[in-house]
Amino acid sequence: MRFADFFNALLEGKVIGQKCLDCGSYTCPPKATCDNCASRNLEAVELSGKGVVRTFTTTYVAPSGYTEEAPYTVAMVELDEGPWIVGRIDLPNEEIEKLGQDLIGARVSIYGKEFPTEPFYPDKKRRVVPMFKVEGLK
Amino acid sequence: MRDVAVLGVGMTKFGKHPDKSLVDLFAEAFFEAFEESNIELKDIQALYYGNFVGEMTDGSGNLSGFMADEIGLRGIPAIRYEGACASSSVAFREAVKAVSADYYDIVAVGGSERLYTAGTEIGTRALATAVDGVYEIAAGLTFPGVFALAARLYAKTYEIPLEELREMMAMVSVKNHKYGAINPKAQFYGKLGDLKVEDVLNSRMISSPLTLLDCCPMTDGGSAAIIAAADIAEDLVDTPVYVRGTGQSSAGGLFRQKEDIIRAIPRKKAAEMAFKEAKMTPEDIDFVEIHDCFTIAEIIATEAMGFFEYGQGCYAVRDGVTSIDGDLPVNPDGGLIGKGHPVGATGVSQVYSVVKQLRGEFRENPVKNAETGMTDTLGGDFGTLVNMILSIHRR
Prior knowledge:
The structure holds two protein chains of two kinds. Chain A contains two helices and eight strands; from the N terminus they run H-E-E-E-E-E-E-H-E-E. By secondary structure, chain A is mainly β. Chain A has one domain (3-134). In chain A, a hairpin with a 4-residue loop joins strand 5 (72-79) and strand 6. The model of chain A has no long low-confidence stretch (mean pLDDT 96). By secondary structure, chain B is an alpha/beta fold. Chain B has one domain: Thiolase/Chalcone synthase (Peroxisomal Thiolase, Chain A, domain 1, 3-Layer(aba) Sandwich). Helices cover 38% and strands 17% of the residues of chain B. Chain B contains 15 helices and eleven strands. Chain B has helices spanning 22-35, 54-58, 64-70, 87-100, 120-128, 143-157, 162-180, 197-202, 230-236, 254-257, 265-278, 295-304, 313-318, 335-339, 343-358; strands at 4-11, 47-50, 78-81, 106-114, 205-207, 210-211, 220-229, 241-250, 287-289, 372-379, 384-391. A nine-stranded mixed beta sheet of chain B has the order 3-2-4-7-1-8-11-10-9, sandwiched between helices. In chain B, strand 5 (205-207) and strand 6 (210-211) form a beta hairpin. Classes of the chains: A mainly beta, B alpha/beta. The interface between A and B is large, with 42 and 42 residues.
């Protein structure tokens, strides 16, 4: 599975990954080998698209190419199937600051959002960011 | 395999060098090392050079040949090593292996980098090339961001209120700035030596919960060392410093490491490899120069290297265990936070500090009775990890 497949699916609202036919564990984002046992016996599957926030940070000083978007909150979410992915929390900054550490453990659903690419990003047409929508909030 | 020793070390002052090129910085450090090595230029058989982002900061790649030519070593094999912030530690370790394997007798090692002069935006983007270039950078993850993620996860996992952890993290900055302020080669020499915890907590937020003073600075600088087979070194210099053990490990992206990002498994593996080779344990180490790119990074490193239990490194800082007069002095040269972090030069600058300490030449902040020291250099989000143990005792 190519990296572009993962992001194309995200834009359609789907999180795709791989299921290992040897050990049964899931790998996401895609990899040439199973993230658990290194097997190449993998099957492309659609995942639930839901998970839990495990950690996050609000970035105030952004790199060249990302400064217009700051401040933004990067998070790592553990998908229900096990893998962790990196994306952004879809909440206003003030609300995130108010929640603080309590944001850890929040359930999220995942979708893809398109941003302008930058000179060094591998996809020269667009940059797709996994967005984490916190459930149970308005 | 032969024993290997360090003949000489050199480093530029770390800080801002808008008027010195990558080549100028390396050459300055190299000749300081050369002057104390008691060899002739023609004795050096190869150059192992570390640089991370010369392409982005100076528009320059293919750097090793220019370095060798500059110092009068035209024609020798010259190799550039890139392992993000651990670039020159990788170079040093490869050089040690080549001499140990009897392929060369005497080689030069070093690195240079110019991140201060590059400016914050370019510098931040250049450093961010060390995170996963597809899945992590897409969200705008930065290096302060990586360790901010680790800090929040550390607090959550070990059930420490974040504000309490932030205070202990701030103590790392206070300690390392105190030592950096008395190190003449440090970026903050004469500055920030009397920081207070509140100063760190209240400085500008960079990536929550890390403030500016939780972060090491952007730095320009160069470093160098000359190493030789131990038998040769003993005929050349009064106090050879022996490379007793080295270790290296790797990892993929943060998201592949999951909850282990606060356990730094590659560092655990690299440190264990170095201890095994040295036939030593953490108890044999008198002090360490650790990769404190961020305050939380130092805490995590001391745990992964085996000096403290997981979740206990923060209390070691609070209780003064890692101060110069504690049981395990950490970063007596100021570390990356106080001394500066010209990434490709950092690893060999740690070797510089350890060698000076072991020879009794680190007069500003001496570690009492230091006979064995260790370095720890981290490249990226644990993608490249190198540990080295140096001692005044041959095995």
